[in-house]
Amino acid sequence: MRHVISAKAFDRDALLGLLAEAARMQVALGRGGLRTQDGKVMAALFFEPSTRTRLSFEAAMLRLGGQVISTENAREFSSAIKGETLEDTIRVVAGYADVIVLRHHEVGAAARAARVSRVPILSAGDGAGEHPTQALLDLYTVWREVGRVEDLTVALVGDLLYGRTVHSLVYVLSRFSGIRLLCVAPDVTPLPADVREYAAAHGVRVEVEPDLHKAAQVADVVYQTRVQKERFASAADYERARGQYIVDRGLLSAMRADSIVMHPLPRAGEVAPDVDDDPRAAYFRQTHYGVPVRMALLERSLQAQVAGEPVWSESAEVQ
Ligand code: ASP
User: Fold this and answer.
1) What is the dihedral of CA 190, 210, 270, 250, to 10 degrees?
2) How far apart are CA 141 and CA 240, in angstroms?
3) pLDDT band for position 313 (50/70/90)?
4) 178 Cα to the center of ligand 1, angstroms
5) 164: Cβ below 6 Å to ligand 1?
6) Are 113 and 87 within 8 A, CB to CB?
7) Is pLDDT at 202 greater than 80 in this prediction?
8) Which residue has the CA at smallest separation from atom 2 of ligand 1?
9) Strands 179-184 and 205-208
10) Do 84 and 13 meet the contact criterion of CB atoms below 8 Å apart?
11) Position 312 confidence tier, pLDDT thresholds 50, 70, 90
């Protein structure tokens, strides 16, 4: 089944295929969308807050002609509050929908869900673990805006420890050659060792660069992130990390004319608002690319066979 649990599952060919498919979806969007998923239902099951991921997944399904059922605060407004396990919730919802988009606060939750689901699970983030579909739209953004996904210098800035989008992005970039990553992080939020080692094992040059200006001068992409306040055990560590690296007009003046600034958003002060008018500020365009990329992902998952016996049969006979 075509679950999307980890960005590691996409090899180079799968990534290039997905970029091409998303570009096809972008053209289809310009013509008003498609009707390929008419009669199909997507469930969005979100145990953590979301704006872009949930709404762009919902928009993507609607633009494919499908329909959507959704719970946006499942931690409080689903039976989880009554003590229902994630596995039981998934078993139930898999009888209501053809695909489930799941965001959860625990690392590994999407993999647990996939083990019991009879329909594809698309992870929309599992705690501080991964955010694979964000990485795919980030790759698409780089491809469209920089014009290539190889031979790139990417400055990863901010919370590289808890920032799940960074982990998935590193896995995706590791599939391509000539990648150099400059890690610009407060000392309390370094890139996790396992993520760094994965990249290095795939031929990526990973360097620590505490000076954001120096990194920005050579980067094709400055990938800024929010310090993930909700994940810190220590308020003092959060205060140390917050506000250390800011993308502002001064930084833009150090950047090359053909580079871009990305951010998975939301921002919490780490990109100054007066950067928005600069053509290199790609982060709002990045949010919009989420729709064609998620359309491509939904098509890919929904084409795959649903496992096990169908919930509904064409016969009305009582068994
Ligand atoms: N929206 C992204 C995420 O859910 C980034 C963030 O929250 O800072 O991981």
Assistant:
1) -170
2) 31
3) confident
4) 27
5) yes
6) yes
7) yes
8) 264
9) parallel
10) no
11) confident
Q: Which residues of 66-103 are buried (b: 16+ CB within 10 A; e: fewer)?
A: bbbebbbebeeebebeeeeebeebbeebbeebbbbbbb
Burial of 305 (0-12, 13-18, 19+ CB in 10 A): exposed
Give pLDDT tens digits for 98-107.
Answer: 999 999 999 9
Domains and CATH numbers, the chain: 7-129+289-307 (3.40.50.1370), 132-287 (3.40.50.1370)
Q: For residue 309, which amino acid is it? A: E
264 lines ligand 1 (CB under 6 A): yes
| 131, 136, 225, best to mutate for ligand 1 pocket (most atoms within 8 Å of CB) | 131
Residue 159 CA: nearest ligand 1 atom is 8
pTM over 0.70, yes/no: yes
Confidence band for 319, pLDDT divided at 50, 70 and 90: low
- Strand, coil or helix: 20: helix
Report the nearest atom of ligand 1 relative to the CA of 52. 1
The answer, yes or no, to whether any atom of ligand 1 lies below 6 A from the CB of 131, is yes
Contact 252, 219 (CB under 8 A): no
**Of residues 78, 139, 83, the one with CA closest to residue 103:** 78
Whether a cis peptide bond, with omega within 30° of 0, leads into 192 is: no
- For the Cβ of 129 lying below 6 angstroms from any atom of ligand 1, the answer is no
CA angle 282, 192, 107 (to 5 degrees): 85
Q: Which residues are catalytic?
A: 52-53, 82, 103, 131
For residues 174-185, give the mean pLDDT: 98
Q: Is the pLDDT of residue 95 over 90?
A: yes
For 101, the 3-state DSSP assignment is strand
Ligand 1 center to 51 CA (angstroms): 9
Q: How far is the CA of 24 from the centre of ligand 1 (A)?
A: 26
Instruction: For residue 290, report the distance from its CA to the centre of ligand 1, in Å.
Output: 13
